[in-house]
Amino acid sequence: MLMNSLRTRRGNFELAASIFRVGFFSLVGLAVGVGMGFGAGDMASNGELEFLPFLLWPVLFLWQLTPVTLASFQEHVDLSVLLRFPVSFGSYLLQYLVFGLFDISSILGGICLAGIWIGLVWARPHLVLWATLALMGFAAFNLLLTRMIFAWLDRWLAQRRTREILGMVFLFLLLGAQLLNPALYMHSGHRSRMTRSATVHALHTADRVQSVFPPGFAAGAIHAAESKDAIGAAASLSGLALYVCAAGSMLAIRLRAEYRGESLGEAPQQAVKAGKEARRAGFDLSGPIGAVVEKELRYLARSGVMLYSLVVPLIMLFVLGRGSNSAGFASLYALPLGVAYSFLGLTRLVYNSLGGEGAGIQLYFIAPTRMRTVMLAKNLVQLTLFSLELVIVCSIVALRFGMPGREMLAATFCWLLFALPVQLSAGNVLSITMAYRMTLTRMSREQGSAGNGLLSLLIQLVVFGVGAAVFLPLARFGHAELAVPIFLVLAAGGVIAWLRVLSSADRMVANRREALIQSLARAA
Q: Is residue 127 a contact partner of residue 223, using CB atoms and an 8 Å limit?
């Protein structure tokens, strides 16, 4: 299969992009793992293993948050195709877990735990057995937890009612974060008044709470072994084993239902509501553009995965904010940084706009509608979504950092006039030349494309780099207002490029017709 994929130019590029992606994240994990190793070795050498949870908790969060933040740049293998053959449930479960070992999160987390293990064993060789058991159990828990979360999210996001419930829960969590963060800033000035005894009591309470969670159990087992308390170490390992069994059982329940042929679609509900849907008034837009816009909005409204990817950058932008009274580089350039970061949520929609069509791509080839019209309608939807995100980003920046200056507002707006058409034109080209099938209802079953993801990231970095290369030198010498006409000239070139790509869409799609059908209409 690998040799067959290398017969095409795209296959060679995909292999090179995959090697680059794995190598890059391995180097990142290696750097973090080395730091973890030195930290663990220093704790063990100084007899401070009670602080080991300070290393294990970041590994837990890294393992669980990486799949969400890097969803656009990693590949997933749909193992449900194996259910067409007489495969036993044990084999299906085993392969599901084995493929999870090659996720980016597993690579990063595994390297971090390997660094911690090396640091502990180097400083305390007699802890090799207990450290191995504790860290392997902790790794197994993280692996099972990640796979279990995505398996159950796929189940919940496949039905409209559960998507609405999860959406409400997510909004309540967002509101809770908005209320919690100002409260922390409000009381930050009173922290210095806390007595030493109150601080120690709070730390002891936090330590007791975290000790009953997997990072606490793993660290507790190693600490107890260092203290020659074999019973305590065994008890901590038993608690960790219970968490592993619980995560594995929840994953097995979900996979067992899939193995028995459970369908995640909502066809029965749709059949019942078909009459009501037919009687609903459609959009006022008429013609092919209106039809494509309506189809795109309906697909988006029913895709919890895509809605989730649109909201996550906004949440991260809010959480990473430092407050309205902050100063310095972050507060000065909060608006352009926030705008550039928020565009990450639209990466898959812009750079793989045909990916959600699936087998329906064949209808475009027999319909009396030009692909230029289809791509234009998709671009209009993308511009609308980005406009909504832009309003939210501006609101967050104004609340967290204060209103930006006039020069920054004008420069950011003019840079957007250049960045948007460039991104749309590049997205249209990649959507036609490097399209891949995109599952809109399942988070862990997207095949993905390393080449498409890598190029989309590089294009966004180049567009942002152009803006920084124009504005920063001028601002440094006190001529920031000159950035506006430069961006307007670049914007004119970007619009021309976008229009030329649209005019060439029919020719490009005609040349790639067989490749598009092969990539998008293949069996899911």
A: no
pLDDT number for residue 288:
83
Distance CA 103, CA 110 (A): 10
What is the distance of C-alpha 20 from the center of its chain?
19
Q: What are phi and psi of 184, to 5 degrees?
A: -65, -40
- CA dist 368 to 243, 355, 365, 374, Å? 57, 21, 8, 11
Q: Nearest-5° angle of CA 286, CA 345, CA 97?
A: 120
Residues in the chain: 524
**16-65 pLDDT tens trace:** 887 887 788 888 889 999 999 999 999 988 888 888 989 999 999 888 88
Q: Could you identify the residue written with the tokens 């990486």?
A: 66
- Residue 437 in contact with residue 355, Cβ under 8 Å? yes
Longest dimension (CA), the chain: 79
Q: What is the structure's pLDDT at 78?
A: 65
Q: How far apart are CA 165 and CA 304, in angstroms?
A: 11
Query: Which pLDDT score, from 0 to 100, does residue 112 have?
Result: 92
Our measurement of the distance from residue 481's CA atom to the centroid of its chain's CA atoms, rounded to an integer in Å, reads: 36
Return the closest-CA partner of residue 65 out of 118, 141, 142, 165: 142
User: Which stretches of the chain score pLDDT less than 50?
Assistant: 188-193, 266-284, 323-327, 443-445, 524
Both structure tokens of 439: 């599952």
HSE-CB at 224 with a 13 A cutoff on CA atoms is 18
- On whether the pTM is more than 0.90, the answer is no
Residue 228 DSSP code: T
What number of H helices and E strands is found in the chain? 24, 0
Handedness of CA 104, 105, 106, 111 (dihedral sign): positive
Q: Which amino acid is at 218?
A: A
DSSP-derived 3-state class of residue 443 = coil
Contact between 135 and 55 (Cβ < 8 Å) = no
- Quote the tokens at residue 520: 């998008």
Query: Cα-flanking dihedrals φ and ψ of residue 172, to 5°?
Result: -65, -40
The single residue listed with the structure tokens 């960045």 is 419
> How many whole angstroms separate alpha carbon 59 and alpha carbon 63?
6
Kindly state the DSSP code that residue 345 receives in the 8-state scheme: G
